[in-house]
Amino acid sequence: MDAINIRLSRSTQPASNFALEVDLTLPNQGVTAIFGRSGSGKTTLLRCLAGLEKNHQGQIAFNETIWQSEAGDFLPVHKRPIGYVFQEASLFPHLSARDNLAFAMKRASQENSIIAHQDVIDLLNIASLLEQFPHQLSGGERQRIAIARALLIQPKLLLMDEPLSALDEGLKKDILPYLEAVCSTMSIPILYVSHALDEVIRLAQYTVIMDQGRIVDQGETQYLLGKLSTSRYTYQNTRFMITGQVTEQNEQWGLSTLSFGQHSLMISRTHEVIGDTVKLQIQARDVSIALSANEDSSIINRLAVYIDDIATNNTDPNTVLVRMMADHTPILASITAYSAQKLNLVIGQQVIAQIKSVAVLR
């Protein structure tokens, strides 16, 4: 069965100050996020997979083709069918954007051409940038050219190493829709390294969490982020995700109804249309809990759920995290320990999860 298999152990060089201890089998489709704080080993793992790091023992196989083995076999970088997008765009400064792309196309295997040049141009909206040189482009524009270059190599695997980390928040918001388009359109697997939880939620179907060179947890993104144990490794405000389909729209109030399982949420309407699949991210601190379904509240999203788990928040002993299940979708709430005691919350209890529409993030 096609998959990405990685088994790496300690560096063979005693002077090395970092060691990976990983054993992974990753899906050979969609987007897999490699997530963790700075220094957790994410980039080292990606560089090993690309063949840029030779210091680690172990085996790497892609679709049953051995790239590195315990016996010492090592496929050089230029023979691995990968595209690599770095934190910095790393374009050739003396070449125009068009010529940067042409350089990639010369490297591409024409026999395995699966990504059309014009499709990439259109997808990333870079036609107007092609005659410009890197110094004439903004950071976001340079990164879009870098992504196009990586795709035009005709890779069987795309590696992206924190491609938005060098951009300010404005440019990051500008380029994220293009990244979403790439991730949803391309039929090749993508490994996406990030320490930004919002990027992981928007882009990845599967997530691997790393810490100190080891795998802390892994699984489908929505369920992984719904685990209370996972929240201790996110290093950010705890949040979870809901994926659903737009089933209704209210023109008068500018709202869309997102349905998932037997439940639904009303959210502020943007560009979505009926039938669209939408991913939402919600911070646990924006969820409250009620014991009854009284309608005398300004909060219109009131979900009948049951409590599945309760844990003390490691970063604040006066706060507890409560996981509730809406069918198969986990809902997290961060509330004070006092409130949990006052409501006498226990595992298995039926409660109402309240979510403000204005608190929902895209």
UniProtKB/TrEMBL annotation:
Residues of the ABC transporter domain: 1-237
Pfam family for this entry, one: ABC_tran
EC number(s) stated in the UniProt entry for this protein: 3.6.3.25
Domain Mop intervals: 296-362
GO cellular component, one term: membrane
An MF annotation (GO) of this entry: ATP binding
InterPro entries hit by this protein: AAA+_ATPase, ABC_transporter-like_ATP-bd, ABC_transporter-like_CS, Mo/tungstate-bd_C_term_dom, ModC_ABC_ATP-bd, Molybdenum_import_ModC, Mop_domain, P-loop_NTPase
Annotated TM spans: none
Record keywords: ATP-binding, Cell inner membrane, Cell membrane, Hydrolase, Membrane, Molybdenum, Nucleotide-binding, Translocase, Transport
This protein's name: Sulfate/thiosulfate import ATP-binding protein CysA
Phylogenetic placement of the source organism: Bacteria, Pseudomonadati, Pseudomonadota, Gammaproteobacteria, Oceanospirillales
